[in-house]
Amino acid sequence: MASDAPRRAPASPGLQVEDALGRRPFMRGIMVHSLMARGVSFEDAFRVANGVRDKIRDRAVVPRDELARLIEAELGGERPLEGLPLRLPRTIHVVEAGHRTPFSKGVLAQSLLAAAIAPDEAFEVAREIEAELMRRRTSEVDRDQLRALVTEILERSMGERVAGRYRIWRAFQESERPMILLLAGAAGVGKTALAQEVAYRLGIPRVTSTDSIRQVMRIMLSPELAPAIHASSYDAWQVVPGLAAAQDPVIEGFRAQATTVAVGVRAMVERSIAENTHMILDGVSILPGLFDPERYANDAHVIFLAVATLDPVAYKGRFEARARVASRRPPHRYLENLDAILRIQDHILELAEEHGVPIVDNASFDGSVLSILRHVTETLGKQGGFGERKPA
Fold it and tell me: In order along the chain (392 residues), what is the average pLDDT of each group of 10 residues?
């Protein structure tokens, strides 16, 4: 059946580059990559590609040899195109102990996140390193040489402290002891989200919460044996006999719960040590004073931090935001108990101050992630001497 709709003209194929083998679409991205492969900096390559495109944008076809002349003109005649290498090796390989693996800009950018820099900055550094390897026209690079190059570029572009954090984390990968990061904090301060993001940036696969530990313990221990774990941290006092008359029943109930769950926390830490596996553990039941990191100093690098939300208005808003994405956790339970939750937070912060546990005010998620990463790497540097400069 014929249609009454007007017929459209066929789509334009766009600007084409023609040579002896035929025609193909002109793409600025390919030109930028090609110029960088010939040793041109990204900034110059991008400028040249834009200049060439502006000169030929109204044409349908441009011969390849003419395109080469236009590129040379944009380069300013300083480096004739014919004098630049025609191609790089197809793949740059990283060599370590006789094993060769393809260089990956993405993998490198991921490893840079441990230096507590933003993801977009990590990718820019990785791209600069790739361009430098291209300029060197190398097909292989030793892993230690690559790390030295990364450190040099980080030091030049971001400073010694960032480069130092990178050195520490890369050196720590050779450690025989695991790193265990503990994030304490009251309900709703954002511990779990921070734990997951920090784990991603550090490449740590094991992330768990004391909520999971408590749930397992609930199955094993009846309400008659351990009543405190069968309630929330802020209303545990209601199920523990005799606490209603306590001076501060909320805190006493919370401590009763944390004391019971601390057994499971120690079990998780000891399992991680036995398996020599890095781990991040977060939870309201990780209470300074109930858990002593020094107990494991010879077996693991245990790093203890307390997370808080010091602005009560922001705290309330976080519960409301949580409800919008988790319908099974309505905000009214938290909001109705906000005073109790804030008292628990104050208690945790007092204990953190007493036991020398650093506090992260989670006012900005991205800022808190970077703060935790900085603390982790700098603590590892102090504890194990990782990343110290080798004498020349």
Answer: 41 70 79 73 83 88 87 73 46 85 88 91 88 81 92 93 92 90 94 95 93 94 94 92 85 95 95 95 94 91 95 83 61 81 96 95 94 94 69 40
Question: Which tokens go with 160?
Answer: 């010694």
Beta strands in the chain (DSSP E): 16-19, 22-25, 61-63, 93-96, 99-102, 140-142, 179-184, 207-209, 279-283, 301-308, 359-361
How far is CA 294 from its chain centroid? 27
- Which residue type occupies 143? R
Asked if residues 165 and 377 have their Cβ atoms less than 8 Å apart, the reply is yes
Both structure tokens of 118: 């933003």
- Give the end-to-end CA distance of the chain in Å, rounded to a whole number: 82
Q: What is the rounded distance in angstroms from the CA atom of residue 58 to the CA atom of residue 229? A: 73
- Which one, of 322, 48, 352, 369, lies nearest residue 184 by Cα? 352
Half-sphere exposure of 57 (CA within 13 A, CB side): 8
The residue extents of the domains of the chain are 16-83, 93-172, 179-384
> Exposed, middle or buried by CB within 10 Å (0-12, 13-18, 19+), for 357?
buried
Residues found in the chain: 392
**Angle made by CA atoms 371, 373, 379, in degrees to the nearest 5:** 100
Given a contact cutoff of 8 angstroms between Cβ atoms, the answer to whether 286 and 184 are in contact is yes
The architecture CATH gives domain 179-384: 3-Layer(aba) Sandwich (3.40)
Q: How far apart are CA 218 and CA 231, in angstroms?
A: 10
